[in-house]
Every structure is written in structure tokens, then in C-alpha cells.
Design brief:
Shape: globular
CATH topology: Serine Threonine Protein Phosphatase 5, Tetratricopeptide repeat
Keywords: Kinase, Transferase
GO molecular function: glycerone kinase activity
CATH superfamily: DhaL domain
Number of domains: 1
Helix content: over 70%
Order of helices and strands: HHHHHHHHH
Protein name: Dihydroxyacetone kinase, C-terminal domain
Organism: Bowdeniella nasicola
Pfam family, one: Dak2
Structural class: mainly alpha
Number of strands: 0
Largest sheet: none
CATH architecture: Alpha Horseshoe
Length: 230
């Protein structure tokens, strides 16, 4: 498995996230309808559809990891309605600053996830335990750092982040919302999965899948190369 990731990984990650938002559109709408205004799925699908179109541009393949993430960030900020656009846009903008080299290693991956979390927290003025996307990103950042410190590869760090996000999102079910529109429901918000935490889980799962695919491709290329040299 490849120890580092490069720009094609980011492109694949974003495209997988586009697919995930399209496929989960109705589910996210239903989740948001229960404790919000019901537009999260529509907004996320619209925003990531715009990201997909952007990635079809002729110059997309020439962009660095940082440039790809920054472009996606600006697109989400301008096309996703409600609070999600600024929050996800800031997350990816922070991530673009963390991914400022040609390759992303395990430590860099952990830093990228932590930077995205910091952006969301600063923009949304939210903390863990308030039943928001911060609960998913917070556990993702913790798991990513732990995996990186343990010597995992970049792909393995992404997998740890995705698993952390899944656990963090699921934990919101039993939380009472104290931030955002859902907080108006008080105790009635308990028992519902936070839609922002769920969309965050999907985005980080897309990253893990893209990283795994990049690692598999690199391993296959190495095997072919070794066979040719034999």
C-alpha cells in the first residue's frame, strides 16, 4: 500500500463525495426534516454537483492537491445553501492549506483532518457534544492522529478517520441539540441522527475509499514494474 497520496487521490475523493451526496440526497433530506428545515440533502447534492462540473474542466488535471481542495471549497461556499456551505467550504479551505505539497503522508493526512475540524469549529462556533458535524469531524481527527502516531500509512489514516467519523455521527443520535436550528427542539432532538454529521461521515468515507484505491493502484504498478525487471 502506498505510503503517500497525490493530486489524483483528491480528485477521486471529491468525485466519490459527489456520488455519495447524490445517492444520499433523499436520506439527508429526511434526516434534516426531522430536526431542521429539510434542505440539507438538496443543498449538498447541488453543491457537489457543481464540484463535479468543475472537475470536468480541462485544467483540473493540472491542479495540485491544494488547488483542487481550494477550488472545491469556493464552489461549495457559493452553491450550498444554509450553514453547510460556509462550514464545508471553510473545512476544505483549511484542508487546502494543510495539503500544500506534492504528496500527502500519514502525518499530513492527520493534520489535514485536524485543520478541517478547526475550520468548522471556528466558523460554526461549535464544540463537541452539541449534536453537529463537529462530533463526526472531532472523532475523525482523533482517530487520524492516533493512527498516524502508530505508524499507519496515509490510506490507513484515512480509514481510521472514516471510522471515527462514523462513530461520531452515530453518537449524535443520543445527544440533545444545543446548536443550530435543531436546538429549538430541545429534548425532542434526542433520537435523531444529525444530518451534518451524516454528510461528514459520507465525505470522510469517500476519502478513505479513494485512498484505498490509490494504494491498490500503486501496489499494482509496483508489481508490474517488478515483473518487467525480472
Amino acid at each position: 500500500m502506498s505510503e503517500t497520496l497525490a493530486a489524483p487521490f483528491v480528485t477521486d475523493w471529491l468525485l466519490r463525495a459527489c456520488d455519495a451526496m447524490r445517492d444520499a440526497r433523499v436520506d439527508l433530506i429526511e434526516l434534516d426534516r426531522a430536526i431542521g428545515d429539510g434542505d440539507h440533502g438538496e443543498n449538498m447534492d447541488r453543491g457537489f454537483s457543481a464540484v463535479r462540473e468543475q472537475l470536468r474542466d480541462a485544467d483540473a488535471e493540472a491542479k495540485s492537491m491544494s488547488e483542487l481542495l481550494k477550488s472545491a471549497a469556493m464552489t461549495l461556499m457559493s452553491t450550498v445553501g444554509g450553514a453547510a456551505g460556509p462550514l464545508y467550504g471553510t473545512a476544505l479551505l483549511n484542508a487546502s492549506r494543510a495539503a500544500d505539497g506534492d504528496e500527502l503522508d500519514a502525518a499530513g493526512t492527520a493534520e489535514l483532518v485536524a485543520a478541517a475540524l478547526a475550520g468548522i469549529q471556528k466558523r460554526g462556533k461549535a464544540d463537541r457534544g452539541e449534536k453537529t458535524m463537529v462530533d463526526a469531524w472531532g472523532q475523525a481527527a482523533d482517530a487520524a492522529r492516533e493512527a498516524a502516531d502508530a505508524g499507519a500509512s496515509a490510506a490507513e489514516v484515512w480509514q481510521a478517520a472514516a471510522e471515527g467519523a462514523a462513530a461520531g455521527a452515530q453518537a449524535t443520535v443520543q445527544m440533545k441539540a444545543t446548536k443550530g436550528r435543531a436546538s429549538y427542539l430541545g429534548e425532542r432532538s434526542i433520537g435523531h441522527l444529525d444530518p451534518g454529521a451524516e454528510s461528514s461521515r459520507l465525505i470522510l468515507a469517500a476519502a478513505a475509499a479513494a485512498a484505498e484505491a490509490a494504494g491498490s493502484t500503486a501496489a499494482g504498478d509496483a508489481t508490474v514494474g517488478a515483473a518487467k525487471d525480472a
